[in-house]
Specification:
With about 280 residues, the protein is mainly α. It has one domain. Helix 1 runs antiparallel to helix 2 and helix 1 packs across helix 3. The radius of gyration is 19 Å and the shape is globular. The protein starts with a helix and ends with a helix.
Length: about 280
C-alpha cells in the first residue's frame, strides 16, 4: 500500500464513519480499486481506532459526565443500545458477512441505506412532537437498527440516526446519541479485528507481535498505516462537525440521494459487465 492509498483510505474512513453513507461499503470499494487484499485486518483495526479517538475528543465532556454519573446519565441507554449488536456479533455476524462478502451485493446495500434514510426523514417530519431526552425504547430501536450495519454498504450512523428519528427523538439528538453509540461499536470492531490477527498468529505458530510485524510489512511498512490513521482521525473530526451542521440545516435526504446514485451505478456496472460476457 502506497502513502497516497493510505491517505485516501484514511480520508474515506474518517468521513464515511460519521456521515450516513457507510464507511464499510466505501472502504470495500477502495480496497477493490487499490487491490489491497493482502492484510486488511491491521488496516481496518487501526482506521477504526483513529475514528474512535475522534469521538472521544469531541464528546469528552459528555463522556466524562457519564463516567462520573453512570446511573443518572445516558450511559445505561448506550449499554442497552449495544446489547443487540453484541448478540448479533456472537450469533449471526459471520453468516451475514459470508453471505454479503460478494461485492455484487454492495450496490443493493447502498440502495437499502437510501431507503432507511428517507424513511427516517419521512416519519420524523410526520411526527407532531419530538422529545430530546433519550428513553429506553429509543435506545433499543437504535440498537436494533445498528445490527443492520453489519452488512457492508449499510450505514451504521444512517441506520441508528434514522432509528432514533422513527422512535421520536429530534434529529439533532439522534445524531448525538448515534455518535456516542459508535464508541462501543467501533471499539468492538477493533477488538474483533485484533482477534483475527491473533488467530492468524496461532495458525502460523508465531507470536502476536511477530504476526503484527509481518502484516505491517505487507502493507508497505509503518508509515502508510500512520498516514491512514492520522488522516482518518482528522477527517472524522471534520465529518462530525459537518454532520452536526447539516442535520440542523438540511437533513438526511441529500445523503440518501448520494447513496442511491452510488448503488444504482454499481448495479448498472454489474449488469453491463454481465451482458458483455
Amino acid at each position: 500500500m502506497t502513502n497516497f492509498q493510505a491517505f485516501i483510505l484514511g480520508l474515506v474512513q474518517g468521513l464515511a464513519e460519521f456521515l450516513p453513507i457507510s464507511s464499510s461499503g466505501h472502504t470495500t470499494l477502495l480496497q477493490m480499486l487499490f487491490d489491497i487484499d493482502e492484510a486488511p485486518e491491521i488496516l481496518n483495526v487501526l482506521l477504526h481506532l483513529g475514528t474512535l479517538l475522534v469521538v472521544l475528543v469531541v464528546y469528552r465532556d459528555r463522556i466524562w459526565n457519564m463516567i462520573r454519573h453512570p446511573f443518572s446519565s445516558e450511559l445505561k441507554w448506550i449499554i442497552l443500545a449495544t446489547i443487540p449488536t453484541v448478540i448479533a456479533a456472537l450469533t449471526i455476524k459471520d453468516k451475514l458477512e459470508a453471505t454479503f462478502a460478494d461485492s455484487r451485493y454492495l450496490g443493493y446495500c447502498f440502495l437499502f441505506t437510501s431507503f432507511i434514510l428517507l424513511l427516517g426523514e419521512a416519519v420524523n417530519r410526520l411526527r407532531a412532537s419530538k422529545h430530546k431526552p433519550v428513553r429506553w425504547y429509543d435506545a433499543l430501536v437504535m440498537g436494533c437498527m445498528q445490527v443492520l450495519a453489519i452488512v457492508p454498504g449499510v450505514s451504521r450512523s444512517g441506520c441508528t440516526i434514522s432509528g432514533g428519528m422513527i422512535s421520536g427523538i429530534s434529529r439533532k439528538r439522534a445524531v448525538d446519541f448515534s455518535f456516542l453509540m459508535s464508541i462501543p461499536a467501533i471499539l468492538g470492531s477493533a477488538v474483533l479485528g485484533a482477534k483475527d490477527i491473533w488467530d492468524m498468529a496461532e495458525a502460523a505458530n508465531v507470536s502476536f507481535g511477530a504476526q503484527l510485524s509481518a502484516l505491517t510489512a505487507q502493507m508497505g511498512g509503518a508509515l502508510p498505516l500512520v498516514i491512514g490513521v492520522a488522516t482518518a482521525a482528522l477527517a472524522g473530526f471534520l465529518a462530525i462537525r459537518l454532520m452536526l451542521y447539516i442535520v440542523r440545516q438540511i437533513g438526511l435526504r441529500w445523503f440518501a440521494v448520494y447513496t442511491f446514485l452510488l448503488g444504482a451505478f454499481l448495479i448498472a456496472r454489474q449488469v453491463l459487465a454481465g451482458a458483455a460476457l
